[in-house]
Design goal:
Blueprint: H1 5-18, E1 19-22, E2 26-31, H2 34-48, E3 53-56, E4 62-67, H3 69-78, H4 97-100, H5 102-116, E5 117-126, E6 129-139, H6 143-155, E7 161-162, E8 167-170, H7 173-182, H8 203-213
Antiparallel strand pairs: 1-2, 2-4, 3-4, 5-6, 6-8, 7-8
């Protein structure tokens, strides 16, 4: 089988976010978003010359499966710690190429945020003044992975923060507008049902709306009307 290292580096954020490795013989990726299925299969085809097959679960989720020990070994050769991504006590080390190649770093963050992250908007009130707190975030329960995601942002001249729970996020206007210019989300990926205010919205559309709202905060008001 063909094993393209650069291609595997582009597959990694899919596996680290909404995917995994099963019993060292199967790579899988799970999502409710059909667009993410297409993005993952294209990346897998570039890496392995095989995009796997899709199973639809009764709950509506898609599972893409790539069976074969050779595919798993190919991923392990690039990132040996991949098997421990769900063990929050184990150190997980990202490949050094991600910290040297800005295009790879941006791709990693774009994919990870598209799969397990997004845009959050919270409304607050100080006296009679209503204000919005805007964030672009990535979710990672493994503290070691979260720390490296933060470092990746820093290599790209962002100022990320860690909530010490499971999120790395950008909250400065300069960072969010820069993220919208330089990184963004994968095309046609939507906010999941976990967000009651924004579910079904295109993530890039919501990101652009947040950027526009710095000049006109009232653009966000409709989302908070009861």
């Amino acid at each position: 089988m063909r094993c393209d290292r650069y291609g595997v580096l582009r597959v990694l954020p899919f596996i680290l976010s909404d995917g995994g490795i099963y019993k060292a013989r199967e790579i899988y990726f799970t999502t409710t978003d059909a667009a993410l299925v297409d993005h993952f299969r294209r990346a897998a085809t570039e890496a392995f010359n095989y995009g796997g097959y899709v199973v639809r679960r009764s709950n509506g989720a898609y599972v893409v499966k790539i069976k074969g020990r050779d595919y798993v070994r190919c991923v392990e050769a690039v990132m040996p710690d991949i098997l421990y991504k769900n063990d929050i006590s184990r150190a997980v080390t990202l490949p050094s190429e991600l910290f040297r190649d800005q295009d790879l770093a941006k791709w990693f963050l774009k994919v990870y945020a598209s799969c397990d992250g997004g845009v959050s908007i919270m409304r607050g009130k100080r006296g009679n003044t209503v204000f919005y707190v805007r964030r672009v975030f990535i979710t990672a329960k493994n503290v070691h992975l979260r720390s490296q995601v933060r470092e990746l942002f820093k290599t790209l001249q962002y100022s990320p923060q860690d909530d010490k729970d499971k999120h790395v996020y950008l909250s400065r206007k300069e960072d969010i507008t820069k993220y919208a210019r330089e990184i963004r989300f994968l095309e046609n990926v939507k906010v999941t049902g976990n967000s009651k205010r924004f579910r079904g919205l295109d993530k890039n559309h919501l990101l652009d709306l947040v950027v526009k709202s710095y000049g006109n905060p009232h653009l966000l008001d409709p989302f908070f009307q009861t």
